[in-house]
Amino acid sequence: MTDQIPTPQPPAPEKGKSWFARHKIMSTLGALVLVIIVISATSSNGSTSSNTEDTSATASSSTSNDTGVTDTADTSADESSSDAAPADHAMKVKAKKIIREFENNEAAADVKYKGKTLRVTGVVAKVDTDMWDDSKYSIELNSGKQWDILTVSCNYVSEAVAAKVHKGSTVAVVGAFDDGGDLGVTLKDCTLAK
Predict the structure, then answer these.
(1) Fewer CB within 10 A of the terminal residue: the chain, N end or C end?
(2) pLDDT at 112
């Protein structure tokens, strides 16, 4: 008796349906990721141009190296003198609260925070290189909950400052309010608060 049991074969793909039609969940997730990337790139591009305007105004207080290029990266090295004044006058707010304010009424939150220096306390969700400038870093804060999507992003942070924080730790940062809305809140020229 040499009855052979046939080996099961994988089902043949449905004829006439494209990959996207057969994989609806993956297609939807891919489209969602693509939309988020486009929105993020568009909104970050606007904040980058405003940062170059702000840093050109402060170039007179920066140091110049022997090639004539203005070097602003090392100006945060002496944090005790440069952070003391802005941190003392900064408006204190928790990351969770400012994010909620922008979710509830973006116009009112814009009016409240526009032109202000903020001291934001939150849990470090991520430390990463800046999307447009690999020599600068971004620190993202949130409430520390596992499924938090929106963050307070501290952009244009020096490597020395970014190296001092770790994911999951609670920190306070001081920075100038830049923008807020559907993608969270953005601060620029951030430093760690004492």
Answers:
(1) N
(2) 94
Distance CA 103, CA 130 (A): 24
- Which helix (H) or strand (E) segment holds residue 175: the answer is strand 170-181
Q: Is the Cα dihedral 66, 70, 76, 80 positive or negative?
A: positive
Contacts of 118 (CB under 8 A, 6+ apart): 90, 91, 92, 93, 98, 174, 175, 176, 177, 187
DSSP calls for 103-127: HH-HHHHHHHHTT-EEEEEEEEEEE
Question: Of the ranges 30-34, 37-41, 49-53, 187-191, which one carries the lowest mean pLDDT score?
Answer: 49-53
Residue 48 sits at φ, ψ, to 5 deg, of -65, -40
> CA 108, CA 158: separation in Å to the nearest integer?
31
The span from the CA of 125 to the CA of 147, in Å, is: 11
Give the per-residue pLDDT at 31. 83
Angle between helices 95-104 and 106-113 (to 10 degrees): 130
Do 161 and 76 form a contact (C-beta atoms < 8 A)? yes
The structure tokens listed for 37 are 């990337």
Check: pTM over 0.70? Answer yes or no: no
- Residues 112-136 have pLDDT tens digits of 999 999 999 999 998 988 777 777 8
